[in-house]
Amino acid sequence: MNAKKISTSLWVGYAAFLLFWVFRLWGQMPALMDTLEYVFPEKWFNVESFQKGLIPLWNPYIACGTPHVANFQSAAFYPFFWIWNLTGLTNWIFVMVFAHALLAAVGFYFWMRSFKLDKGLAVLCAITFSGSAYLTYLWGFPTHLASLAWIPWIFWMTRELLDRSTLGKWLILAAFWSLQILAGYPIFTFYAMVFWLVFLRAQLKFEGKFWKFLGAWGFALMLTACQWLPFVDLLGYMHRESWGANLYNLKWSEYLTLLAPDALGIPGSAGYKGDYPNYIFGNFYLGLVPLFLLVWSFREQKGKLNFWQKSVLFWFLFPLGSNFLLWGVFPVSLWDKLEVSKASFLFVFCAITALGFYLNQPSPKNLKKNWTQKFAWVFVALWLLDLILVPFRIVHPVPDPYQNREIKVMAGRIKLMAGEGRLVSLRGEEQIYSSSVTDANGSFQQTAERLTQNTNVVWGIQSAEGHLTTVVDGFQNLSKYLREGFPYDGRVLDAAGVNTVLTPKPLPAFKYRTIEQDAGLYLVHNAGAMPKAWPTEKQKFFGSRAESFGALLNPKTFLEDETDFDLQPDGQITSLAPGSYYENPVGGSPCEFQFALPANTSRYFVLDQCFAPGWHAWVDGKPAPILRAEGLWMAVALSASGSHEVAFQYSPLSFRLGLFMTLIALVCVITIFSKTFTTETRRHRERH
User: From CA 83, how far away is CA 626, in angstroms rounded?
Assistant: First the structure.
């Protein structure tokens, strides 16, 4: 069988394999809690917003409102995810996942072929990259997988430009970088960019062409500014959730995954031996045959390692961070900020590239002997069989609870009860994850039934809580309060507009009224919840946000008449500057609120959306500064008695500036293509 037939057979087989898993996951989800609680609801909000003709700048459903486009993984402007606007997200989320798995394989194939690797071996390496345990785990994380899928395409086009430079290729490179950035996982972009520059430095030193590559990357930044600039803006006032010290530093035990993808157990189960957040980033399994060949290639080099083998060693040890003795000279805080375990995808990329280099060496003469050829075929068969078995070992499908009719009915009932108010869903720590694969279905079902964390987004129910990769400064106060446990007798939930509580325990009867009880779950109504916005007359000033928020712990706090404000260190009230260059907003968007206040003597008006830069307010058509109230929410001062019109709008400068930069870059691309097309058409006419 010739190389062309071998490569064609491998491609057909791999496409059929992915299609099998499309049907295997139809109506189901991988048993990964983050897919249920974070990934699916976040993408659902994107689709819901775009279908309404809105840009998802602000998500009002979680955390008393939070920036969405600026969020770590929103991928709101990634064009391939826009297909969900036509198909819907249910089931089709995994069609898009497998499309990107195939995209990653095709990109890696071209990357391998750029080194003149035999077609059959190039396909084998491509399938190994796409079918590695690392990328297989990402089936539950479309943003992560899409981010990685474009990296081999970037390196392939870089190789093409190193061989022959044309304007079209420079634009294609910029397009690949743009898609990688828009796919929405910045930490992957950061490490891919760092290694890409190292690769260029090894190839070009600092020659003129090196700066052209930087120019192409800069142009990609221009094209994608509408997404990354708001994220950079958010970094200025957010905090990462506190998961514990050295979270994203691998432990040596996690390298056992080199020998088996499930060596540490099932993520989320009671017996899992690794850190749960690292179960994706710390899985190095490529297959036993590729691992054997990779190790053998180091033996044959006899100390003279090439660029890719050196890279394999570096990216193998780098994810250990502070757990590696030699890295101890750097402060632990640096490793924590770098989230080094998330760079382990570069080990996978470099390892398979190094393996391709080794396999590309001239075959020794005795390889032509019949027995050696047969042995090679057995090796390849074992290699492919191993790759096929990887998903069966680490992907455990469970029924999609978002398609469960009973949960839909229950969510509809709670949405009707909550109305414009908010929900808080309480649960015990023992109910967070399944204890084994066999009861993962029950765990998913229970999590969805209780509308925990972000799951409420899918049902259109607003919540005071939320699970975010990046958290707006102040949201932690509410999270800590909810983790402290019962009896929740302060006025925190009232100020957050929480009128509905789902809880495994009854709440104090003097304040909360149980509506119904079913299967150990209480549905509770809070009659003291404040409306979405309210006027107040009195004010009190506290020295810090924590003190202002802490005042709400007192059940006797009278929110209806008094507002607590935070003071900055200089004694001034914490506020956001008014946006004097806006007109009054028009309602109908989660980013816009308008209120008509009847005649009264109130001095302040409080809106229960999270205090965040990018909000602007008007009182009677005039710009007004926004004050931080109760440690978390927003308020404006009412200048005089009488009726008032108050308007709020979320329109961050970072997004508007980023959108302007993106549009300028698009105009440049269109102009270049237009001139190129015109020139080529004229030349064609002159020839004929």
Answer: 38
Identify the DSSP state of 612. -
For the CA atoms of 322, 325, 329, 331, the dihedral, rounded to the nearest 10 degrees, stands at: 10
* Total length of the chain: 688
Q: Are 434 and 269 in contact (CB under 8 A)?
A: yes
The amino acid that residue 365 corresponds to is K
How many Å apart are CA 534 and CA 606, to the nearest integer?
5
Cα–Cα distance list, 100 to 89, 145, 343, 555, 590 (Å): 16, 7, 20, 52, 31
Residues 417 and 411: their CA atoms lie apart, in Å, by 10
Q: Which of 287, 293, 252, 292 is nearest to 273 (CA)?
A: 252
Beta bridge partners of 626: 576
Assess contact for 184 and 146: CB atoms under 8 A: yes
Tokens of 278: 């690292």
Residue 511 three-state SS: coil
Q: Which residue is it, tokens 């780098």? A: 318
pLDDT in tens, 428-447: 544 444 445 556 777 788 88
- 180 half-sphere exposure, CB direction, 13 A CA radius: 26
Q: Which two tokens stand for residue 398?
A: 């469970």
**Which DSSP letter does residue 246 get?**
T
In this structure, which amino acid lies at residue 61?
Y
Answer yes or no: are the C-beta atoms of 155 and 201 closer than 8 Å: no
pLDDT in tens, 174-228: 999 999 999 989 999 999 999 999 999 998 876 778 889 999 999 999 999 999 9
**Residue 476 DSSP symbol:** H
Q: How does DSSP classify residue 490?
A: S
Residues 6+ apart with CB under 8 A from 275: 247, 251, 254, 282
pLDDT tens sequence across 336-356? 888 899 999 999 999 999 999
Q: With beta carbons less than 8 A apart as the criterion, state whether 534 and 607 touch.
A: no
